[in-house]
Amino acid sequence: MSRIYLDWAASAPATEAALDSFTRIAATNYGNPSSLHYEGKAAAALLSAARSAVASSLGISQNRVYFTSGGTESCQIPLLSLLRKQHSEKTTILVSAIEHPAIFNQCTVLAEAGFTVKTIPTTSIGRVEAEKLARLLDTSVALVAIMAVNNETGIIQDMDTIAEVIKNSAGRKPFILCDTVQTAGKIPLNFDLDWIDAYTLSSHKLGGLRGAGALILRKPLQVLALGGGQEQGLRSGTENIAAIQALAVALAESMQQLPQNHAAAAALMGQLISGLRSIPGVCILPEERGAKDERFSPYIVNAAFPGLVGETFLRILDDHGIAVSTGSACSGSGKKRRVLQAMQVPVAQAQSSIRISIGSSTSPAEIDRFLEIAQAQYQRYRT
Amino acid sequence: MDIIYLLKLGEIHLKGENRKQFIELLRVNLRRRLEAIPHKLIVRDGRFFLYAPDSYDADVSSILNRLPGINGWARSKATAKDLPAIIAAALEVYKNRLDQGFVSFKVESRRADKGFALDSYALSRELGHEICEKYPQAKVDVHTPDTVINVEVREQVYVYADSESGVRGLPVGCAGKGLLLLSGGIDSPVAGFHMLRRGLALENLYFNAYPYTSHEAWEKVKSLAEVVAGYGGPMQLHTLHFTEIQLKIKKDAAANCSTLYFRAAMMLSADRLCKQRRLNSIVTGESLSQVASQTAENMRFSQSYTDMAVLRPLCGTDKEDIIRTARKIGTYEISILPYEDCCVLFSPKYPVIKADFEQERRSFDRLNLGPMIEEALASCETITVQPKTSGCKA
């Protein structure tokens, strides 16, 4: 029996068009876009076309698009740029408690360098507490990181409320970094909000290939890592043209198909959540989440199977041909469930949780099959 | 060019009439470990002389450092019984030590060949004089020298500086072969190391609780077995699939007894395997009072499911000592890898600490685990693990 892939939030299968574009360009376009000869110029033209396509998909001007190696690097660049401004009076960084390790762990380096890193608490459903954010926003804040859609629970931040809090804060507005890796091409979002300074994208989360991403900036930054000066000096290193083109293709596809894919995902997620709730003992995290709850991404759900450690259940499901994950695939095999614990989920429940994430080719039959296997195996192995 | 290694025996010398058998076993063990290395091994008068190309020095050193039965070893120069040649060798050996920062020295000479012109004292004095003449910075210190230059006059003359330490003990196999219950933790590999040093060859038994434990946890146990095999040579690793037995215990036994019963079931399985494999004992990493299952009462209970000798070399040691040994033998860094241990899963919050022997025997027997254990043994998987000696030094 073929495998059922329910780990799209970790990495999505490449679309046919993205893969075609990648293989074609990788095979034929070997020039370095910084080179002055014909091959180099051909590569530079492709890079420019990709930038234009990404900008067009997001509805922004192309001079705001900087290509990177992926979501993590896109987050690191603005964070580490703070190290170039160490004499500034702005020495506080605010990060939501549910940020991805790409931001949360990078902040430990900034803390070591003398920055004060403060965590913005979230409600039990994982939304940033606006009042607490307002209280933390003083004139010392250099940067605020808030992810639009959480990769573990699927919670969508209330961007209007956050915008209001930030706009009403005293003093010069801090730099706002918005992790949109699980948002782009999946959830409707305006990529031209005047209060957000940086958005991040990862190609392989939306049907492109690994090794490419984008950082969308309102204004250029003074970056920490220097080199050959590619990407207007923002991200040095020879550009991965084939992967960048695949990103442009995959993003265009996903943005075009966003309404219908979103609707299909919402229906599947409803089926999945209802099915999970019908398994005795299983609870959705957060428990407040409804089957068709618009506060959450219809692509991601977190569920606890009390009495069975998440990693154990992952192995069992894997042996039955189903791929899911525990927490963020990027956080490795660490046992802490920082995001769930920030939402005050009890430790035992957090440890027993798995993340199920779906995508454009997930079928209702696959969801049914997953539910059937999950129920049977949970009953067999729960302790 | 060949290096000559002189091996020094320890406890074997305390043996009486049967000393020859121990020496022969040590010879066989060493030859097996050196199988892949071109070498010549001469055993004469209870002394081992090993000749091997210098390009294999790292491998040979690694093997000698881990060979139970030798107290130490040294790289030696060999010369004819000719004073100028002996002086030249002594100067070279001292120069090497001087280059390493050792300045003060003494010369210790021994004559197996009493026909040699100079007696031991005169030979030492002569060599000391020559060293001081050649190297003005050299200083004789007979009480606490930085280095000792050893000279042994035998069929030829061997000159060497300080010995490297061995793991001591007795040759592996002189005490037969036992079964080590190997988990992924810190203690059991150390227990295995101690028993190898006492001459007990080992096979290993791992209780696999997949999917509660991961493939990585098994890989970790295999890595531990490879390091332990560095001291004992290639050894069997048996993997017994124990999940169904653990689930049954969890389901049918009182929660506070589950760990106690797992231990008993493990002992019962080990007993069966020992008999199948004709092994003479069961080795565990238990240390008295370390955890709830390791009380005298609980050990008595679990031990009652075997009539094999149960050897617990760590029983009277504390955790610090065990960790120190684990670091020294190279198992610690593997043991602390974050993969689940088969023993800690299903652990009850309040386990039975002092088992009521008769009562627990009755309750455990009612579980009727015999058929499940037989089934697990029938599908037991066995691999041979090869010694891994790099990256750690005993």
The fraction of residues in strands of chain B falls at 15-25%
Biggest sheet features of chain B = 9 strands, mixed
CATH class membership of the largest domain in chain B: Alpha Beta
CATH C-level class of the largest domain in chain A: Alpha Beta
Helix-strand topology string of chain A: EHHEHEHHEHEHEEEHHEEHEHHEH
What's the count of strands of chain A?
12
| Count of discrete structural domains of chain A | 2
The CATH topology of the largest domain in chain A is given as Aspartate Aminotransferase, domain 2
CATH superfamily of the largest domain in chain B: HUPs
- Estimate the strand proportion of chain A: 5-15%
> What's the arrangement of strands in the largest beta sheet of chain A?
2-8-7-6-5-3-4
**SS-derived structural category of chain B:** alpha/beta
Broad structural category of chain A = alpha/beta
Q: Mean pLDDT of chain A, as a whole number? A: 94
Largest chain interface and its two residue counts?
A-B, 10 and 9 residues
CATH topology of the largest domain in chain B: Rossmann fold
CATH architecture of the largest domain in chain B: 3-Layer(aba) Sandwich
Which CATH architecture of the largest domain in chain A? 3-Layer(aba) Sandwich
Jot down its keywords:
heterodimer, A: 383 residues, alpha/beta, Aspartate Aminotransferase, domain 1, Aspartate Aminotransferase, domain 2, 2 domains, 3-stranded antiparallel beta sheet, 13 helices, 12 strands, globular, B: 394 residues, VC0802-like, Rossmann fold, 9-stranded mixed beta sheet, elongated
